[in-house]
Write a structure and sequence with these properties.
The protein is mostly helical. Among the domains are: 136 residues, Orthogonal Bundle (Helix Hairpins), CATH 1.10.287.1490; 60 residues, no CATH class. Helices cover 78% and strands 3% of the residues. The chain has 7 helices and 3 strands. A 3-stranded mixed sheet has the order 1-3-2. Helix 3 packs across helix 5 and helix 4 runs antiparallel to helix 5. The chain is rod-shaped and about 120 Å long.
Amino acid sequence: MAKEKVTKEKTVAESPGKEKKVAKTTKAAEKPLAEKVSVVDNSEAGKAVVEKDLSVEQKLSNLYQLQLMLSEIDKIKTLRGELPLEVQDLEDEVAGLQTRIQNFQLDIKDIESAIGQQKIKISDSNALIAKYKEQLDNVRNNREFDSLSKEVEFQGLEVELSEKRIREFTAESKILNEEIQKSKALLEERRIDLKMKKEELDEIVSETKIQEEQLREKAKQIETSIELRLLTAFKRIRKSARNGLAVVYIQRDACGGCYNKIPPQRQMDIKLRKKIIVCEHCGRIMIDPKLAGIE
């Protein structure tokens, strides 16, 4: 009994030590895990984490900054004026004239082929006329004479018809050749105009290229701070808007995009910046003037 008592006491005495060891081991195991988690959090402290931390006000501010960058790019495009469209129109006209000339040339080949066929018909008809005339010298009765005379007359009419068609085809071919010469002259003029317009456009593009690239780079950086769903909606609104404005601020109690009046309560909601509000009429995202930096 005494031995059993001593054994129990030893067991009781040893157990707390074991518990401590287990506790220490658990803490030691937990520490690296916590470190791992913190490392992952730091490595992913990019777009996804930023998006969660962004307030509505920051989201609206980022959208407005993106709108400013894209509006500047639009201004650069406006500086180029109608030149890109003019260049495109000239390119289309040059391609159209080239196709027109090719079609005329194909038509002339068809006409030449048709003239050749008519000449063959004339040759065949003349051969038949000569044959029938020889047979007329050896006719035995009036019936054969009338029949051969009609054949000679018919072949003569065939020759006249073929000659008439040849004259028509020749006249048509002459007209087509004249059209080809006119089209070639016009094509040469348009090519010169196109070359000049392209040089002018390239000069303007080269002057604004660096500025445009810088703005595009800034726009891309801002886009990384905007959640994908919101960015997609922004681009959709901007695409449908006539002036390219997707984010507008209140001007004289009205929407800065469509200029429709905004109710006072809705203006108050916009100024609070607690949620993203769009115009009921044009669908643009609205912000208050202070957020746009306008007093």
